[in-house]
Design a protein that fits this description.
Two copies of one chain form a homodimer. With 192 residues, the first copy, chain A, is an alpha+beta fold. The first copy, chain A, folds into two domains: 143 residues, Jelly Rolls, CATH 2.60.120.10; 46 residues. In chain A, 48% of the residues lie in helices and 21% in strands. Chain A is built from nine helices and seven strands; from the N terminus they run ααβββββαββαααααα. Chain A has a four-stranded antiparallel beta sheet. Chain A has a three-stranded antiparallel beta sheet with strand order 1-7-3. The termini of chain A are far apart. Chains A and B meet through helix 3 and helix 5 of A and helix 3 and helix 5 of B. The first copy, chain A, binds a DNA duplex (30 and 30 nucleotides) through helix 9.
DNA sequence: CGTCTATTTGAATGTACTCAAAAGCGGTGG
DNA sequence: CCACCGCTTTTGAGTACATTCAAATAGACG
């Protein structure tokens, strides 16, 4: 077993046989990204489902003025791709980028079809994994509705205290939907 | 075939046999809701996956001050429940309410298990349906990040021109994350 | 050490808010 | 049929949170 983190990710949601996992493993495509390297840029079609075996990534979209809007930040043990682009075969609207040196394990269409055909339990795995992302995103909407900029910041540092050490603050600011200047001022208020 | 809208919803995403559908149909639980009636209130566990066969519903969450935050508005042909509560068996944090007379077709746990066991293609259907909701919700986050109150309003009326006639404006305002007063002022600017 | 980028600080501004009250609308009963 | 009541929407005035613009400081990297 070469990738225990991925195996564990499956086991967290489904009862997967070792055999099924071991039949999948040789089909995985590995990819390493340097810090700041892109996995995809908007307009490209993503051909894989990327699992972060090690590292830190984020995606962002550009608005019509070219402004950057970070929507998701993910690290070791999570998936970060664009399931719309992958499943529809359409160009992605996201830029997806590593912000720390990253190793990905990627599943392409053939492998996805193989997995779900031979072991239908994988279909359930993806249903649950996507469901989890969906619930997270709904919480993100609720936070944007119900929390002030300062409260969103505090919620983030509460849940991910080390994140501010791992990626530039202006990306955190974008993720929180505030300006870097405001983030700086908020942080000033919270250290004494 | 009693519920062609539901049948079509399945067919939109998967290649479903008529037989599979017809075996499901008698197991559906129907429920009608009057205008303004609740399907569930927060704190309750939802025991079904509710499909809107006819009508209009929305969900909302309360913040710590009791403020209402509408997160989703759905009508005929869509699902609106709480998959977290349903699958985890935990109390929901949502209030889900009909805003027009509504007829629901509901799938309970036994039926869900039956469907996915006898016809594994249903597992794929739910993966795709949840994926769709997830993508919508990501777009919602992006809109909150990148659009002004006025732009969010315009985007909504563009996509759903009749919505303002179907539910109170203060719910639309909540969904857009603006105050009813602001919605009123925005609307004033856009009629002449 | 020097350059480039990120973060911080200051001052002025603006978008959407709160508070307050009036007007509009719909249903009910006299 | 009209009058009244409760709720929703509109309007007005003042306010606040986070913004923009601008510039200084700090930090990272070659």
């Amino acid at each position: 077993m070469k990738y225990p983190i991925l195996y564990q990710a499956f086991k967290n949601y489904i009862n997967l046989s070792t055999e099924a996992y071991l039949n999948l493993e040789p089909k995985l495509v590995t990819k390493t990204l340097d810090k700041n390297e892109y996995l995809i840029r908007d307009g490209q079609v993503i051909r894989h489902l990327p699992f972060i075996n090690e590292g830190l990534m984020a995606n962002y979209r550009l608005d019509e003025n070219g402004g950057v809007h970070v929507l998701q930040i993910r690290w070791t043990g999570w998936w970060l791709g664009d399931i719309y682009s992958f499943f529809a075969g359409k160009p992605s609207s996201f830029n997806i980028r590593a912000y720390q040196p990253t190793e990905l394990l990627m599943i392409n269409h053939d492998t996805f079809d193989f997995m779900t055909r031979e072991y239908p339990i994988f279909e359930r795995y993806y249903r649950i994994a996507i469901q989890k992302s969906y619930i997270n995103t709904l919480n993100q909407v609720f936070n944007l509705h119900s929390l002030s900029a300062e409260e969103r910041y505090l919620e983030l540092v509460q849940n991910y205290p080390t994140l501010l050490d791992d990626i530039p603050h202006y990306l955190i600011a974008s993720y929180l939907n505030i300006r870097p200047q405001s983030l700086s001022r908020i942080r000033k208020n919270h250290k004494k």
